[in-house]
Design a protein that fits this description.
By secondary structure, the chain is mainly beta. A hairpin with a 3-residue loop joins strand 15 and strand 16. The longest helix is centred in the first third of the chain and has 19 residues. It is globular. The protein starts with a helix and ends in a 6-residue tail after the last strand.
């Protein structure tokens, strides 16, 4: 009936307004994969870095956001001065990434990096999908300082899972197909810069630089908006408590014009040798997160985080879970 049609349309519209501002997903463990927020990190490692992540946000909340990504990037033409592979691997009683390693650290030789990012976020009955290729160029600008600039270009698409709509009525204008911008491929463009050394990093990036229509009604309505550009700035500094334990405090700021979803995070990551790391994060006006990760034989790593919201959402959800699996390919230096 008409009441159901109105309710369905209003629900879609309200969810659209709530989701449009965060159509680029939140991540908690970006501190172990800053590449997902900045294409300038493409090819920064000595190996091919593959990561797979799933984030289950606001567990228990009906229509809660769920985000999944796969990232892959690799250097081209990068050379490491360590010619003896054996010296890079673990020696009993010695931390291969202790103070001595960083004292001998040198800036990157000029090299390229290429990569691929696949992302999907589902919130309610909206589904956002992205596929992007990335490129970066790295250049040493001081004995221990490097600068990289990167670009990501690809396509995105928004669609509605009609099976998830409780009041699925073909007469609903928001579920009609006329003049719909859904299921259409849209161009994506991201840019980033990353400054890094043996001690610190500083980066800025601009994601979703091409604001696309997010309109899903027929010509009689105006339901929707545009996918907003997202701007990120981050910085971190490594310090050693002793030869085995290092701390990496960091900050990240996100700005989304004309929306309430801008954020500021403060993080601390503690790492024991190259084996285990623990972390905590505070997101202003939102809540806290705890993180932990494990590296296995320099070929595989896993990270887990749990977010606790201090907002009213905590009355309806059981927190947020995020898992990141990492695969290291071609790790001849044992990084």
């Amino acid at each position: 009936n008409m009441k159901k049609i109105v309710l369905a349309s209003a629900s879609l519209l309200c969810l659209c307004i709530g989701v449009k501002a965060q159509n680029y997903p939140h991540y908690t463990q970006y501190i172990i994969n800053n590449y997902v927020l900045n294409p300038a990190l493409t090819g920064i490692e000595n190996y091919t870095d593959v990561k797979v992540s799933h984030r289950h946000q606001w567990v228990g909340f009906n229509g809660n956001p769920r985000a999944t990504y796969i990232t892959l990037h690799s250097p081209i033409g990068k050379k490491d001065y360590r010619t003896d592979n054996i010296t890079s691997f673990r020696v009993p009683g010695e931390n291969p990434r202790g103070r001595s390693y960083w004292e001998q650290y040198t800036a990157a030789d000029p090299h390229h990096g290429v990569g691929l990012t696949l992302q999907n976020m589902k919130a309610g009955f909206f589904n956002f999908s992205k596929a992007k290729a990335t490129y970066a160029y790295h250049l040493g600008i001081a004995p221990k300082v490097s600068l990289s600039a990167g670009v990501a270009a690809g396509i995105s698409m928004v669609n509605i899972d009609k099976e998830a709509v409780k009041f699925n009525n073909p007469a609903d204008p928001t579920l009609g197909n006329s003049s719909s911008e859904l299921n259409k491929l849209k161009p994506e463009l991201d840019l980033g810069v990353w400054l890094y050394s043996d001690r610190y990093y500083v980066g800025v990036s601009a994601m979703q630089l091409l604001p696309q229509k997010f309109k899903f009604s027929d010509n009689s309505g105006n339901y929707g908006d545009r996918l907003k550009p997202h701007f990120f700035a981050s910085a971190g500094y490594r310090m050693f408590l002793n030869d085995d334990i290092s701390l990496l405090p960091s900050v990240m700021a996100k700005y989304v014009p004309n929306t309430p979803t801008s954020q500021f995070d403060v993080n601390v990551k503690a790492q024991y040798q190259d084996l285990l790391w623990l972390g905590t994060s505070y997101r202003f006006k939102y809540g806290y997160a705890a993180m932990a990760g494990l590296n296995v034989s320099n070929t595989f790593n896993i990270g887990y985080s749990y977010d606790y919201s201090t907002t009213r959402l905590n009355n309806f959800s059981r927190g947020t879970h995020e898992v990141v699996l990492g695969f290291i390919i071609g790790n001849k230096y044992g990084d």
